[in-house]
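Quick one - first record:
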Amino acid sequence: MPEQTWSSSAFLSAAIHGMLGLESEGRKNVLHFEPQVPTSWHLLHVEHVRVGNSVVDFSWHSENGHFTLDLRNAGPMFHLSWTQSRTGKDGIAPASLERDIPTGNTHLSIP
């Protein structure tokens, strides 16, 4: 039976856009990150995300309602729009962070 590539790519696309809330606007050099992962997940690592002329790797960490994001940007500066929902935290609005990310390593956190 031939492989159904379209089926695999549809699943990956849904996971990337749905669970990770990851969307790159290359022409504007903007990366949107709005993770919607299960509360049991405490670490997430993503590599080779293209944002315009940049290639970005990042690690997301969650611990006791505190979230951190470590980025490695191998290219020119881009803008990050990070919205973090507070899963399981009734009545607490999502937190947002907007930053320009320079070349190299960047550490960000949302308390």
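second record:
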Amino acid sequence: MKQVKSMVLMSILSVMMVLCLSGCGKSAVIGNWSLAGGESEGVKVDTAALKESLGLELDMSFEFKQDGTFTGVFMGESSEGTWQEAEGKITATIDGESIECSIVENQLHMDMDGSTLIFEKK
């Protein structure tokens, strides 16, 4: 379960990094993001559908800071990490594990094993 949480947090962080790269001056990823849903095999679902299908409360959020750090909260547990922007991608790292994210239509997309977690800026 801890590994799943770390993977989800890394994915989210990566997406936020992409947002930072796509903006002028201040990175677009800087700020607070919360889980809005996901997509798998072309099927999009919102957080309520994810909760129902997984049987878990999916309370996930990230705060990306301008200093290159972020805080992620997943199921009540907080983790801290770092993020970087390069070539239009955001790379978020937590506990030595990294994940790439991208900004798509003002949403942070975190790709994980063929599925995508989608976050919206608060």
